[in-house]
Write a structure and sequence with these properties.
Structural class: alpha/beta
Strand order of the largest sheet: 6-9-12-15-18-21-23
Distance between the termini: 42 Å
Number of strands: 23
Largest sheet: 7 strands, parallel
Order of helices and strands: EHEHEEHEEEEEEEEEEEEEEEEEEE
Number of helices: 3
Oligomer: single chain
Shape: globular
Helix content: 10-25%
């Protein structure tokens, strides 16, 4: 497999790093913002793999690798991931899909670009997942769901059948979405919430 750049230097980037390594990808390096200073926690993380370089976004990254993943997470807003996805696409990067071999993804699932599916996620038949989505560890997406662009389905959440999730929405850890529900764009469903009614765009369910 060709080398992959990881854009981001936080905890989510490290989680992505592990899955990429497990799936046999070679890591070209991590990419930080030009003005970003790595704190002690970051440094300790990257000492786990001291052979992996850290580049700046101002470096000539296409000469290093044209394949990339977005290694920044999403909770309050999708805008940082959304903007980075747009920029990297315009710059000509190939934003690859990554599926952990420990995930169970139906062959009848449709994936956009730049989708990252973590360990033990389950995605059943006739599910559509848009661009730049995170399907995190142990989450379940049942049949006939639509997950729009720039969404994060967080750890251990359950989306039952025939649910439509709008663009840029965050589904928190352990949340449960009843079957047939529509969730609008740019919503935040907090951890552990049970959603039994449609949710208008821009709603924050605490």
């Amino acid at each position: 497999m060709s080398k992959v750049l990881i854009f981001g230097c936080g905890g989510h980037a490290v989680s992505c790093f592990e899955v990429l390594k497990c799936e046999g990808h070679e890591i070209a390096g991590f990419v930080k913002k030009s003005d970003e200073k790595l704190d002690k926690k970051n440094i300790i993380r990257f000492n786990l793999s001291p052979q992996i370089p850290i580049f700046s976004e101002t470096d000539d990254l296409m000469k290093i690798s044209s394949k990339a993943i977005i290694g920044i997470g999403q909770i309050k807003t999708c805008e940082p991931r959304k903007n980075l996805f747009k920029k990297l696409s315009l710059d000509g990067f190939d934003l690859i899909n990554v599926i952990s071999s420990q995930a169970n993804v139906s062959k009848y699932t449709s994936l956009g670009k730049g989708v990252f599916i973590f360990k033990e996620a389950i995605i059943n038949a006739n599910v559509s997942i848009g661009n730049n989505c995170i399907i995190n560890t142990g989450s379940i997406i049942e049949h006939d769901c639509n997950i729009s662009n720039d969404c994060h389905v967080s750890v251990g959440s359950i989306i039952n059948g025939n649910v439509d999730v709008g663009a840029g929405t965050f589904i928190g850890s352990g949340a449960v979405i009843k079957n047939g529900i529509t969730i609008g764009d740019s919503c935040v469903i907090s951890a552990g919430k049970y959603v039994s009614k449609n949710v208008p765009s821009g709603t924050i369910l605490k």
